[in-house]
Amino acid sequence: MKIKVYVPQDSSAISVGADQVADKLQADDQIELIRNGSRGLFWLEPMIEVETPKGRVAYGPVSSSDVESLLAQGLLDGNQTHRLSLGLTEEIPFLKKQQRLTFKRAGIIDPTDLDDYKAHGGYKGLERAITMTTQECVDEVKASGLRGRGGAAFPTGIKWQTVHDTPGEKKYIVCNADEGDSGTYADRLQMEADPFGLIEGMTIAAIAVGADKGYIYLREEYPHAHLRLNEAINKALDAKLLGDDILGSGHTFELEVRLGAKSYICGEETALLESLEGKRGVVRAKPPLPAIEGLFGKPTVVNNVLSLSTISIIFEQGARAYASFGMGRSRGTMPFQLAGNLKRCGLVELAFGVTLNGLLNDFGGGSASDKPLRAVQCGGPLGTYLPESQWDIEMDYEAMAAIGGVLGHGGIVAFDTSVNMSEQARFSMEFCAEESCGKCTPCRIGATRGVETIDKVRANTDREANIVLLKSLCNTMEGGSLCAMGGMTPYPVKSALEHFNEDFFLPAVELPLRVGGSSTTKGSQAKAGGPQTIEISIDSIKKAGTSS
Amino acid sequence: MIANTKQQTVLRAIEENKHLEGALLPILHRIQLDLGHIPKELVSDIAEALNLSRAEVHGVITFYHSFKSKPQGKHVIEVCRAESCQAKGGRAIEAAVKTKLGVEFEQTTDDGKITLEPVYCLGNCACSPSIKINSQLYGRVTEDSVIDLIDSLQAEQH
Predict the structure, then answer these.
(1) Do B125 and A434 lie within an 8 Å CB cutoff?
(2) B23 contacts in chain A (CB < 8 Å)
(3) pTM value?
(4) CA angle, residues B61, B67, B68, in degrees to nearest 5
(5) pLDDT over threshold 70, residue A520
């Protein structure tokens, strides 16, 4: 009998050589090679596993040049003498200490093997949902306490209720898979490792609110997720789990993957809808809410990949079981994503309430370099930079908000002491200038002015006055922008100023020749109307600053 | 079937996708994939087929970073500029690639071989820093490994 060997077909694993490892193992005719998703222990990728009577044992990080010695030292018997041996996979502390619900199948199953999915609890949730009334389905989501995992944390059940209650012959389920936040990769991991989980969740959503068409708006940067999703959708169609008369229930649901086109702002739900309609990804004013007038003006549920994938778990295990995890108003589990300068970067799914220190040190293993950690950005490029004094924070939505922080989509990027926080603040403004949709002035113009102002501070040109100006600009953007892009870009800037102020008083760096971002792209030029300079009287700012 | 002219490629992309809701992005993706850019002179064909103005189609093409109005180099190198890669030395990688190629972002080498593009997160943040060459993603890169990759592209015969 052949021995099962697992080599992840995950983008990250492939980026560090998993395909080459798989090719070498494929040549051995004793091996049944399975390309699973990743377990999310990315510092160990490519991590290969061998099935043994005691369970799966792991080795990593494996390069193709290690394959020969692994086989020679009894890889296929699960022998644990090789220097890359990691023991039983489930016993690896990083994994063992987690509470995996949304990611319970990640890395375990063959991602597009429907039988494997069903053997691990798959489609039990949908089977249950079709026995319930639509209102009971919506109530189940409310009872679970699930809040949008994309970042905004809006209660999912309330959103569904609105779509459920809005009359309309045509309704849509839209999955936001435009995971653009730097430091986040949970959506990608989920779609590559367990695509049926998302498809099942979307199907349940469709039945609950009465929709018959769904779109997964997937960022173009995720080609592997695209392949996995399309393969899984086709298999679900063949098995009558999508399409007409799903499981004999009379419900119809068609699902299609649409690709984004490298625009960060299209992760904002109304810009996403515009993009799906074939337009520029320009943010819409709310109201009307997408739940009432969404895609093509029809009632639309827009949920993140993780929210929808979690739906299938909630319906399989019950709302009460899910809500038993977490703290306060943050129920269930959160997939945190460790990134940047940490020894052990990977996905950590835990109930809300774990401390940031616990994530950085117990899981992440602390700094990967020879310098200590200094700043941690939580919640993507629009999230605040937290200094060490705040790392004892318990990670839940309310606790983070109370210190002006952002949990967002769960991304955590750690920097060591080599970071220059005035440079990071400049990057936040530059990124906003690059990716602003251009609809509202505080964001479109403010971001460009923000870059210029930080450049002046860094160049020691009227430093004190320009810091006052920068703070004032941040307040304008925060209060006057249409969406979170302009509204939250000030968060990282203000936190850098507040907690790492000394970095704005370093020896002067040369003022860039042409202000407005180091890379001039068609996007920023077209949207900001090209480079322009406005002379600002520093004297008037000084007065404004001192009088307030 | 291989289309003989750019226009035939564009018309085929329209024909294959125009029945879709919100067909413009799928059409543009198809053309970008087949031709490497969206020829300006064929914007009117797309506009006509979808009953849009040329300005609307132009607006969409120029809004998204994916769609290019001019042909790209034979190879496209994307260097991630986002925070996780910054924390792992991404700025040094960026500088090394620019120096090696002698171009800035959004530019193509004189021999037309390599276009350099910025990218804001490839979702490979647990294996930072990352770059992408054509469709292949590379994680945990170093200045040396990136230079080696570029050397092998440059050594390639036409």
Answers:
(1) no
(2) 278
(3) 0.94
(4) 100
(5) no
